[in-house]
Amino acid sequence: MVDAQGALPTGADKRTLVREMFDSIAPRYDLVNGLITFGLDSIWRRTAIRLLSLGPGALVADVGCGTGDLARALVRRGYRAVGIDLSIGMLKFGHPGGAPLVQSDAAMLPLHDSAVDGVVSGFAIRNFSDLPAVTVELARVVRPGGRIALLEVAEPSNWIIRQGHSIWFKRVVPRIGGLFSDGAAYRYLPRSVSYLPIYAQLAAMLGDAGFTGMRRDLLSGGVAQVITATRAGMPRVTVRPDALSAHL
Question: β-strand 224-231 against 142-153: which pairing, if any?
């Protein structure tokens, strides 16, 4: 684990850090999530699924699924779901409501071209070691006309809310994380926001990958956000031979 004051890793070092960190916090990940968000994380996930705007029975991949909260919520809403995550520890403690869980890097998804109707992701964008490659993969696996909904943290624009959120996120959250789980991981959490591109950069990245109609919805006073987009055109990458969708 990187020291709270050390330089944030990139590339392969970041990938290793993220995998080991989530392995370490997996046993109490859901408990701490509920505590540090006052239970709002469940509401945010439901909002992300609503903004996905797909019909019942659609096949949706939860990329960076963690313990499968979003996958489980998808199943409850009548979708078919599959969860994909780098951390075997998170998958071990998963409770995805019957959705299959698969270990894989988000930059190399084990899915056929145009295999899914949509993709959701919860608080994972800033943890991907190669975000441009991930956006290209999302465009590859989502069918033309399919949808993505990416849930992430955000910084409130209101000064009062921003100051209160900063104190909570940077000072209180690491203490709660240290009390119930891995303190080093939750000291890293607020610093990891620096990995997150601004919306204009992310929208441009998604556009380059093959998405259109990008939109950003702010939640709970701007402490969280959902970025949605629609897959345009035709897939441009060949089918992976180990594609999971062959078994779905």
Answer: antiparallel
Question: What is the Cα–Cα distance from 106 to 124, expressed in whole angstroms?
Answer: 10
Segments in 26-154 forming alpha helices (H): 29-36, 40-52, 69-76, 88-92, 131-141
Q: What digits encode the pLDDT tens for the residues 139-158? A: 999 999 999 999 999 999 89
Q: Domains of the chain: which residue ranges?
A: 11-154+194-233
Can you give the pLDDT at residue 247?
Answer: 36
Q: At what angle do helices 11-25 and 29-36 cross, to 10 degrees?
A: 90
Buried-exposed string 206-242: b where 16+ CB fall within 10 A, e elsewhere: beebbbeebebbebbeebbbbbbbbbeeebeeeebee
- Report the candidate in 11, 21, 67 with the shortest Cα–Cα distance to residue 189: 21
Flag whether pLDDT at 238 surpasses 90: no
Report the alpha-carbon distance of residue 175 to residue 168 in Å, rounded. 10
Look at residue 5 in the predicted model and tell me its pLDDT: 55
- Sequence-ordered list of residues with C-beta below 8 angstroms from that of 160, at least 6 positions apart, any chain: none
- pLDDT of 217 reads 98
pLDDT in tens, 88-138: 999 999 988 899 999 999 999 999 999 999 999 999 999 999 999 999 999
CATH of segment(s) 11-154+194-233 = 3.40.50.150
